[in-house]
Amino acid sequence: MRRFKVFRSLVIDSLDTITRGSKRYHLWMGILTFIMLIGMYCYSIQLEHGLSVTGMSDKVSWGLYISNFTFLVGVAAAAVMLVMPTYVLKDIDFKQAVLIGEGLAVSALIMCLAFVIADMGGPSVLWHMIPGIGVFNFPNSMLTWDVLVLNGYLFLNISIPFYILFRHYQGKEAKSSVYIPGALISVFWAVGIHLVTAFLYQGLQARPFWNNALLGPRFLASAFAAGPALIILVLAIIRSYTAFKIEDKTIKKIAMVVTVAAQINIIMLVSELFKEFYAPTHHSESAYYLFFGLDGKTALLPWIWTSISMNVLATIILTFHKLRNNLKVLYFACFILFIAIWIEKGFGLIVPGFIPEPYGKIVEYSPTGIEIGVTLGIWALGAFIFTILAKTAISIETGELRYKK
Which InterPro entries match (predicted)? Predict the structure, then answer.
């Protein structure tokens, strides 16, 4: 009964906290709300007319939605790079950032699920994937494995921070015996969500572009580069506009993680390029289309070469110690690396897998205004949720929010 009373008090205090703030905070939340409303309007058109309003077709059946889903799975998995040092290795330098990282993971996972619903056409078809009601097809279907690992990881990233913040709200220390087992599970689960997503693509034999043994490891490398890069940018904003102070050494330690992951990602990219182009076969046509175009079709060339250029530039900047330790340069490198990997794991991975189709026909894909509107709406939803979570967590961690007995 007492815990319910404390929980009720936490909800009321949290609502009071997230509805108060500076003009800049209200403007930010207002902009996100406006973008979400645009996304809802675009989604209502999709619900009325179906997926025909998107740029997808029977030739290219995955587009902007699944591209963002794939990328955000990596952003969610990246929280493990803060969870493991903090909860398992007891590195106090990561302690200030770990709750922010887990909040980012929760937001990313909610966006992942939203993009899946958007790609399915509408929420009414979700019953097909409910065990006992629909045809869940477990354990044969990799898609069902993906459903399980994503929802399981979402539960872990909600429950662990909630327990810690719930204790801190009462002025008590969290018991390590309660949250450490969950943290250990989440470390392996984070790797699992990305590998299972990679296996979804690798298991499609008719799409040789994805039949690559490096796909899973490269998913992890790019995730551990883009995710912590985004965390660094978020921490930079938080320490500039809130009372929650993040030390330089915390950001610099996360930057080391980004650097190593970005370097490994580049090495794997070179390995893939060698495999595709040193001794090309007809299975290399998708890669040729992506990097050089096929039969005059070159829609993805600007995207992929921009991505590679930004990726290489960011990795070079991060590799040099003096450049990486300059925080303004670090933020710039993290920003362009994040954009580069978003392109690479989006348009650079999903779309070429369908081009050319199994019979050799080249049908190019470009997203429609409806797709872009829905996508921006979902990203705004994620930013909105993260802002709420971060504002509440920061208020508790700074002692501003406490249970009044």
Answer: DsrP-like, NrfD-like
For residue 199, is it within any domain? yes
Structural domain count of the chain: 1
The 3-state secondary structure of the chain reads CHHHHHHHHHHHHHHHHHCCCCHHHHHHHHHHHHHHHHHHHHHHHHHHHHHHHCCCCCCCCCCHHHHHHHHHHHHHHCCHHHHHHHHHCCCHHHHHHHHHHHHHHHHHHHHHHHHHHHHCCCHHHHHHHCCCCCCCCCCCCHHHHHHHHHHHHHHHHHHHHHHHHHHHHCCCCCCHHHHHHHHHHHHHHHHHHHHHHHHHHHCCCCCHHHCCCCHHHHHHHHHHHHHHHHHHHHHHHHHHHCCCCCCHHHHHHHHHHHHHHHHHHHHHHHHHHHHHHCCCCHHHHHHHHHHCCECCECCCHHHHHHHHHHHHHHHHHHHCHHHHHCHHHHHHHHHHHHHHHHHHHCCCCCHHHHCCCCCCCCCCCCCCHHHHHHHHHHHHHHHHHHHHHHHHHHHHHCCCCCCCC
What pLDDT, in 10s, does the model give residues 181-204? 888 888 888 888 888 888 888 888
186 domain-assigned? yes
What's the domain range around 369? 11-397
Identify the pLDDT of residue 93.
Answer: 66
Please indicate, yes or no, if residue 402 is contained in any of the structural domains.
no
Q: Decide if 405 is inside a domain.
A: no
Q: Which residues of the chain have pLDDT under 50?
A: none
